[in-house]
Design a protein that fits this description.
Length: about 850
């Protein structure tokens, strides 16, 4: 094809992409459907112009379009890695991890079920070889993620539900392409009907190899990007290479799935990148990849659609009947997942409940697109696949894709409207009226101020004010009517909590843009906010408080890190997580204090004084819990919080300094050369300030032991020995530390937090500096008390031998034991213990014990 014609055609493609997006919005069609229609019209028009006898003037253009070098390798090696890599970069991994069971189940099981259902049904009806039918099933089993995701964005569906479906739609490409490669190898080898277990037995190897290739590529890329930290374009260039290296490495070197390699690379970079790259660069990187993905997705749709008329050129009536069979089998497979597997996962507590209308919308919105066409093209290009097999696969895959795009795609909005999913609930409608009324009141105040400043004519101002007042009165009337009819106080509290959490999200993003908090911390904070919103939506105030407590708790990864530190002597993970917790609590304290003003400015005006006061109370409880957690860490690691606070001040000063330099440049006070020099110097200082101080767990534990009043009379050598003997335990709120009727072999000292001790129906609370478990150890009896943490608590644990040795050396500790034994039935037994028979009298005429 002539280079000039190719360049012209490429430019026209980008113009078509630009036009298709607003046109699709105007016609309320999915963007992918519009692109497929454009590509099909171009391909069909080229065939018509080349074969028509009306004119030969357009033959060179038609021949050029039909001669375009469109190959499946272009889709698989150029466009597909870009699409998948960008999608994984945008995924909220922490939120996905909450729902990894339903996501992976749907992504893998749905593809396998669709492949088997379509393959066996088609083989039974048509008599074609099973491997050919399974190959076709794998080709048409993957849904187009852009169409599915757009459904939920238009519906304002529950975020957790949208997240599960989005994750499934993005990951099922990898599963389908891995299965396609597996069955394609059997078809090319001419193996008629190998056992299904033999075929699927190779599947784990494809996944493991792909994961390793993606992880390794991303880790090398992060190392290079760290070396190029001062050169943003160089870092972006490295990121562009990552998906392609992961894909080729998996496919060519390891014989694994390249798509899974790209997914693993994107997830690795998504998880590790925010903590190693600057916040500004991370935002720019995602913006660049968003643009690349938009172009790649549009081009793959149009170019694949260009081939549709060619692939359907030899269609027969019997082929159309087989297309109908594929369509019915695909709907049955999707129904098995949506109406069989999903309800089962819901009953098991692994997936949120998905209402029937949503499931129907998901089933009808399962459009097929460019990936299906690209895989079908790969079959038709292969010289090792029989001719009749290539013809059938091309026709059936293309016909099924056209059905989903033309029939399902064009009627999707109607189905959604018929199901009533595009309508606001009464509660949302009432809230909308309330918000409009408050917003218009604010606008009226702003307009009144503006008209005074501009000195407009009185008649014009009066006329416009009258019109605006009429609109405001109508909005207030609607709001008051809905207020009396629809919104209960309980609902107002829920809506207020959702609005408060939404504003918290905006504050976090603003702090991130200002570099006040790192990208990793901002993602964790946004993760916590999403939980607050979902908790408030599901169970109101109770769900909000539960999510708030969960965000401050020590999770399973923290406990695993503590086990690595305490049992295996590996302190790195625990030190990193503890430092993250320090920094997160400092950031949360600042963010939460900013929310009180939002309650007074906005929520009070919408929901009233009572709701505002309750939200103030709930917010104060969250701030108090953060302060408690921060104080506990300060007590455990004295001085480290101060270092973090100094680092925060330095970063704030650098941010303000950068703002001043930018203002001076914009005002013309300094030139670009001076500004560049100043910014280079600032970047060097910022790079130094971004490094977080290292937390030394061993040193801090020594200092913590020295701060206990119980050990005040011990010498330096004894304190050093004690710090080696005690073990640190991190306990979540609500966790049972010791259970009733269990052997007592350990004494616990409360380093931070608080515990609750239940003995014979009586409850006692112990705080920092106190101990428990000593009576059971000294009397060698079964525990009679159950002890539970009531806040996130840090404990020092000492075994029986160490405690008895310590008791002999510490008079203060012996006195505490005497006091704790006073008034108890076991006091006589305790006083006869040799550890207490030193030189401290109990009083009266008793001998020294």
């Amino acid at each position: 094809m002539d280079i000039v014609l190719l360049t012209t055609f490429t430019a026209c493609l980008f113009l078509l992409i630009a036009t298709a997006e607003p046109l699709a919005a105007r016609l309320t069609l999915p963007f992918s459907v519009m692109l497929a229609a454009v590509g099909t019209l171009i391909g069909g028009g080229a065939i018509f112009l080349l074969n028509t006898e009306l004119t030969d003037a357009f033959n060179p253009l038609a021949e050029g379009i039909l001669a375009l070098p469109i190959r499946s390798s272009v889709f698989m090696y150029v466009f597909l890695p870009t699409l998948i890599f960008q999608a994984t970069l945008e995924m909220n991994i922490r939120r996905m991890l909450d729902d990894w069971v339903p996501i992976l189940t749907l992504a893998v099981v749905a593809v396998v079920v669709a492949t088997l259902t379509i393959g066996y049904t088609l083989s039974w009806v048509s008599g074609l070889p099973l491997m050919v039918c399974l190959l076709l099933g794998s080709i048409v089993s993957t849904t187009d993620p852009s169409a599915v995701v757009s459904i939920f964005r238009s519906l304002s569906a529950p975020k957790r539900l949208a997240r599960i479906i989005e994750g499934e739609s993005l990951l099922n490409d990898a599963a389908a392409i891995a299965l396609f490669g597996l069955f394609m190898s059997y078809v090319m080898l001419g193996v008629p009907n190998p056992s299904l277990s033999e075929a699927l037995g190779q599947f784990p190897g494809l996944i493991v190899g792909g994961i390793f290739s993606g992880w390794f590529s991303a880790r090398v890329a992060l190392m290079l990007m760290g070396l190029f930290s001062r050169f943003e374009t160089a870092q972006i260039s490295v990121s562009v290479a990552v998906p392609y290296l992961a894909y080729i490495g998996a496919e060519q070197l390891l014989g694994a799935s390249g798509v899974i390699g790209v997914v693993a690379a994107g997830l690795t970079l998504n998880f590790m990148g925010p903590g190693r790259l600057s916040p500004a660069f991370w935002m720019n990187l995602k913006e660049v990849w968003g643009l690349l993905s938009h172009w790649a997705g549009a081009l793959i749709f149009i170019l694949a659609a260009l081939l549709i008329p060619r692939l359907l050129g030899d269609v027969r009536l019997a082929d159309l009947l087989l297309v109908v069979v594929v369509i019915l089998a695909a709907f049955v497979a999707r129904a098995i997942i949506l109406f069989g597997l999903l309800p089962l996962l819901t009953r098991l507590g692994l997936s949120p409940k998905i209402q029937r209308p949503y499931r129907i919308a998901i089933m009808w919105g399962g459009l097929r697109g460019a990936v299906t066409l690209a895989l079908a093209l790969a079959v038709t290009e292969s010289l090792r696949v029989p001719v009749e097999t290539k013809r059938l696969v091309g026709i059936l895959a293309t016909g099924f894709t056209l059905f989903t795009l033309i029939v399902q795609g064009t009627t999707l909005r109607g189905v959604i409207s018929l199901l009533g999913l595009d309508k606001l609930s009464p509660l949302d409608r009432a809230l909308s009226n309330q918000v409009v009324a408050v917003a218009l009141q604010t606008v009226r105040e702003g307009v009144a101020s503006a008209t005074e400043n501009y000195d407009l004519t009185r008649e014009t101002v009066r006329s416009e004010a009258k019109r605006f007042a009429a609109r405001l009165d109508a909005a207030v009337e609607r709001a008051e009517a809905e207020d009396n009819a629809e919104i209960l106080d309980r609902d107002r509290i829920t809506l207020g909590l959702i609005a408060l959490a939404g504003h918290e999200r905006e504050v976090i993003l603003q702090r991130f843009r200002e570099r006040a908090i790192s990208a990793r911390l901002s993602e964790q904070a946004l993760f916590d906010v999403d939980r607050l919103i979902e908790g408030a939506r599901s169970t109101g105030r109770t769900g909000y408080q539960r999510a708030s407590r969960s965000s401050l708790g020590y999770g399973p990864t923290f406990r695993l890190a503590a086990i690595l530190r305490n049992r295996f002597g590996i302190p790195g993970p625990l030190a990193g997580m503890t430092a993250d917790r320090f920094e997160m609590l400092l950031a949360k304290r600042l963010i939460l204090r900013d929310l009180h003003g939002f309650i007074d400015r906005r929520i009070r005006r919408i929901h009233g004084r009572r709701v505002a006061e309750l939200l103030h109370e709930l917010l104060n409880r969250r701030i108090e819990a953060v302060e408690t957690g921060l104080e506990g860490l300060r007590l455990q690691y004295p001085g480290y919080a101060e270092e973090l606070e100094r680092r925060f001040i330095r970063r704030t000063a650098l941010r303000l300094e950068e703002r001043e330099y930018n203002t001076m440049r914009d005002d013309g006070l300094i030139g670009s050369e001076v500004h560049t020099q100043l910014m280079n110097d600032l970047d060097q200082r910022r790079s130094a300030s971004e490094r977080r101080p290292k937390l030394d767990l061993t040193l801090r534990k020594n200092e913590l032991v020295r701060q206990f009043p119980l050990f005040a009379d011990l010498g330096d050598a004894e304190l050093k020995r004690l710090s080696k003997e005690v073990r640190t335990r991190y306990i979540n709120a609500g966790h049972v530390i010791t259970r009733k009727d269990t052997p007592a072999r350990t004494v616990f000292f409360v380093a931070s937090g608080a515990v609750e001790q239940l003995v014979a129906g009586q409850t006692t609370r112990l705080g920092r500096g106190e101990m428990f478990g000593q009576m059971g150890v000294l009397t060698s009896r079964i525990r009679r008390a159950e002890v539970r943490a009531i806040t996130p608590t840090s404990l020092l644990a000492l075994d029986e031998t160490g405690f008895r040795r310590l008791l002999k050396r510490s008079a203060a500790l012996r006195q505490v034991v005497r006091d704790s034994a006073a008034g108890k039935a076991s006091v006589a037994e305790v006083l006869r213990l040799p550890e207490l028979q030193v030189d401290a009298p109990l009083g009266g005429d008793d001998p020294k014990v």
